[in-house]
């Protein structure tokens, strides 16, 4: 059974072009499922029934996992069994009649413009690391790119003369993104004053590098961001994705249309982008209640 799982993960990598994060999540979820089958003495996928699958999902709930995590496990299983079915390893799919758990869409938290401005001034731009961090946060807020796109961004994908950056998002989808004046200014300063000092003669194709001249991890940047948020007095749960939410919401509040924001975020489905219309709608309700004489 393990060899079929390896074939499936290879299929997702080569034919579907899924991101490294998605592949890691699928691999983790499906290995947990294999362990469950092993404990039940099931050694062949032909012997898996919908009752076994329901039992697995029940165990996930008993472990205290969120509805969203359980739903993600079910997506991984659906994709895997569909693969087995399409490739001829299984004649029937035991997941066909299994319903997905209802996942409520929670409104993403966002930063106010004042909080963004406070966050941006926290890095010490007189130091190479501080200048790098200021440029990174400016670019994240200016483009709404994913943190994985930011830390893996090649230097030659940024065109400061043309004022754009070339991004490859989920599924290796390419999108050209405009850069604002502030983001261009800080990236330019970083390139002129800080990058060579951090590189110390080492070669790297990446735009943003560590003090060792190598690429940064998502975790390292997240840790830096949380520290800056704390020093700025921001009490919201700070993550790189919070800036992505903020970027989208601020664009819509400023009058941008939903389709344009969808393209900028790299969402395949506009329904994913529509959550931000609820954010701006909730903000308008609060303003109405606060300022309208009969609110």
Which segments are poorly predicted (pLDDT under 50) over 5 or more consecutive residues? none
- Overall mean pLDDT stands at 82
Question: Strand share of the residues?
Answer: under 5%
- What kind of sheet is the major sheet? 3 strands, antiparallel
Distance between the termini: 62 Å
Assembly status: single chain
As for the number of domains, it is: 2
The neighbouring-strand order within the major sheet is: 1-2-3
Residues in helices, as a percent range: 55-70%
Outline:
elongated
Strand element count: 3
- From the alpha-carbon coordinates, what is the Rg to the nearest angstrom? 23 Å
The CATH architecture of the largest domain is: Orthogonal Bundle
CATH class of the largest domain, named Mainly Alpha
Our count of helices gives 14
| CATH fold node name of the largest domain | hpI Integrase, Chain A
Question: Can you describe what's shown?
Answer:
There is one protein chain. The chain is mainly α and 295 residues long. The protein is 58% helix and 4% strand. The chain has helices spanning 2-16, 20-39, 50-62, 67-86, 113-120, 128-143, 147-151, 181-193, 195-199, 218-231, 240-253, 258-265, 270-273, 275-291, and strands at 158-159, 164-168, 174-178. It has a three-stranded antiparallel sheet with strand order 1-2-3, with no helix packed on it. The termini are far apart.
Please outline the helices and strands.
Elements (H helix, E strand, L loop, with lengths): L1 H15 L3 H20 L10 H13 L4 H20 L26 H8 L7 H16 L3 H5 L6 E2 L4 E5 L5 E5 L2 H13 L1 H5 L18 H14 L8 H14 L4 H8 L4 H4 L1 H17 L4
Antiparallel strand pairs: 1-2, 2-3
Helix pairs in contact: 1-2, 2-4, 6-8, 6-11, 11-14
